[in-house]
């Protein structure tokens, strides 16, 4: 019994001493210059695959965790040195140069590692668009039954206005057994965005004939009417593009199980709403300046006109963005902008 | 598997410290700080990048890192003795 006490005492004293030594080490750890710490990985995916023998899955998990920790540390460092939370638009400033290699290695070790592909699809386009496309193509080649990978790839092409490629990817993904009908609809939509309205029309007609779903038929009828409308064709680069973006984000939201992706999509939808609101507010400010010869000194001066345009106002008469933060009057009251504290992305 | 997870925990223990510093809740802060000091900190033994660039660690850092290893091994041996001394392994 006495020996037990001695051992417990030794463990307690040892852990205390280890904690003190660890604390001292933390304060005296040699600083490795940043350019060395951010060096490319010494071993690439194929080499790691040979070295890890039958433990490819565990090694893939290791690289996956490193990817998450790498991004997490960068975000913490960013938020420690900047005011406010990191915005999606600030991802580029994190300098995530190792992330493509980490994700490539993880997915080479385990080509069925879907979470790594989805994560890369969301984060990588802001770091290296070509790497994001290459990663998703690798994922589609290894998991040809996963339509969500095609959806992410189509989204990336759409963001970069490569409508033809986006259309092809949506079409390929849309033909997979479990793919929802709107994947083929998005393919047609991308063709229309790219100016190939006749091709889009053919795809819509084909989709209408092939589908038994009344919702899909209704949606296709609306899209065909949209194509028929010459007026709307004239606005294709304006409101039409915004509507396409809204559809794209809504589908992305519905198809994703990841809370971060859902959060990102919610913000993008708020940004689209805000763009529409700001367009209305600009019209009001411009009309006011034309009629009075000067720009508005405060929101109160244009509150009635804003109300008539169905813009939401707060108690002081200032228009509110989708997060209920008041917009700012800038450039002497002639322009409107999102407040710096608003979570709505610009 | 156990060795692999000890390896993972040991190399990511610095993140426990970062987590304890970034959380606003005091009990959570103490919990993760305690965990950080309790788990083996293997990151001190990783000098791959520095060595690749010809950078040597300070002698004092080297000595305390060895001391840390000795103390931690002693703690593990004491805990092992405590657990297994009453077990009949015959």
How would you describe this protein?
- The complex is a heterodimer of chains A (346) and B (90).
- The longest helix of chain A has 34 residues, at 259-292.
- The model of chain A is unreliable at 230-238 (pLDDT under 50).
- In chain A, a hairpin with a 4-residue loop joins strand 1 (328-330) and strand 2 (335-337).
- Chain A has helices spanning 2-28, 34-37, 45-51, 56-81, 99-109, 114-123, 129-142, 147-159, 163-174, 182-193, 197-210, 214-228, 230-234, 236-255, 259-292, 303-308, and strands spanning 328-330, 335-337.
- The radius of gyration of chain A is 27 Å and the shape is flat.
- Chain A has 2 domains: 42-267, Alpha Horseshoe (Serine Threonine Protein Phosphatase 5, Tetratricopeptide repeat), CATH 1.25.40.10; 276-337.
- Chain A has 346 residues and is mainly alpha-helical.
- Chain B is mostly helical and 90 residues long.
- Helix content of chain B is 72%, strand content 0%.
- In chain B, helix 1 packs antiparallel against helix 2.
- In chain B, 14% of the residues are buried.
- Chain B folds into 2 domains: 1-46, no CATH class; 56-90.
- The interface between A and B is medium-sized, with 32 and 35 residues.
What's the short story on this structure?
The complex is a heterodimer of chains A (346) and B (90). Chain A is an all-alpha fold.
Q: In CATH terms, what is the architecture of the largest domain in chain A? A: Alpha Horseshoe
> From N to C, what is the helix and strand string of chain B?
HHHH
Helix tally of chain A equals 16
* Unreliable runs of chain A: 230-238
Give the number of domains of chain A. Answer: 2
Oligomer: heterodimer
Distance between the termini of chain B: 26 Å
Query: For the terminal residues of chain A, how far apart are their CA atoms?
Result: 69 Å
- Low confidence ranges of chain B: none
Largest sheet of chain A: 2 strands, antiparallel
- CATH topology description of the largest domain in chain A: Serine Threonine Protein Phosphatase 5, Tetratricopeptide repeat
**CATH homologous superfamily of the largest domain in chain A, by name?**
Tetratricopeptide repeat domain
Q: Tell me, rounded to a whole number, the average pLDDT of chain B.
A: 85
**Range of strand content of chain B:** under 5%
Largest interface: A-B, 32 and 35 residues
**Spatial ordering of strands, largest sheet of chain A:** 1-2
**Mass-distribution shape of chain B:** extended
Mean pLDDT of chain A: 82
Measured as a percent range, the helix fraction of chain B is over 70%
């Amino acid at each position: 019994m006495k020996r037990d006490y001695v051992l417990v005492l030794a463990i307690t004293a040892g852990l205390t001493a280890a904690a003190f030594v660890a604390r001292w080490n933390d304060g005296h750890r040699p600083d490795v210059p940043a350019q060395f710490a951010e060096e490319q990985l010494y071993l690439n995916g194929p080499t790691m695959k040979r070295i890890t023998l039958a433990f490819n899955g565990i090694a893939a998990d290791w690289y996956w965790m490193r990817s998450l920790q790498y991004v997490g540390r960068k975000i913490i460092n960013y938020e420690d040195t900047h005011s406010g939370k990191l915005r999606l638009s600030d991802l580029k400033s994190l300098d995530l140069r190792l992330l493509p290699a980490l994700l490539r290695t993880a997915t080479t070790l385990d080509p069925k590692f879907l979470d790594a592909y989805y994560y890369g699809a969301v984060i990588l386009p802001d770091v290296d668009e070509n790497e994001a496309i290459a990663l998703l193509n690798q994922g589609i080649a290894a998991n040809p039954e996963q339509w969500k990978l095609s959806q992410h790839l189509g989204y990336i092409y759409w963001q970069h206005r490569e409508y033809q490629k986006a259309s092809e990817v949506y079409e390929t993904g849309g033909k997979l057994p479990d793919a929802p009908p709107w994947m083929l609809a998005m393919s047609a939509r991308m063709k229309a965005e790219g100016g190939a309205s006749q091709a889009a029309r053919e795809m819509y007609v084909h989709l209408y004939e092939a589908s038994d779903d009344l919702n899909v038929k209704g949606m296709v009828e609306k899209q065909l009417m949209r194509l028929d409308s010459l007026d709307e064709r004239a606005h294709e680069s304006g409101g039409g593009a915004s509507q396409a973006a809204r559809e794209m984000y809504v589908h992305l939201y519905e198809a994703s199980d990841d809370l971060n992706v859902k959060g990102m999509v919610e913000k993008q939808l708020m940004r689209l709403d805000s763009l529409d609101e700001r367009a209305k507010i600009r019209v009001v400010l411009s009309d006011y300046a034309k009629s009075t010869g000067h720009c508005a000194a405060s929101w109160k001066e244009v509150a009635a006109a804003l109300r008539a345009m169905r813009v939401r106002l707060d108690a002081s008469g200032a228009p509110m963005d989708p997060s209920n933060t008041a917009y700012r009057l800038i450039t002497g009251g002639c322009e409107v902008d999102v407040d710096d504290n608003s979570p709505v992305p610009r | 598997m156990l060795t692999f997870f000890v390896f993972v925990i040991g190399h990511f223990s610095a993140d426990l410290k970062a987590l304890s510093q970034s959380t606003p809740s005091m009990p959570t802060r103490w919990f993760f700080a305690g965990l950080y000091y309790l788990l083996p900190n293997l990151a001190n033994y990783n000098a791959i990048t520095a060595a690749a660039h010809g950078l040597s660690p300070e002698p004092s850092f080297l000595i305390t890192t060895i001391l840390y290893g000795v103390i931690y091994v002693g703690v593990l041996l004491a805990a092992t003795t405590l657990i297994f001394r009453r077990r009949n392994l015959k």
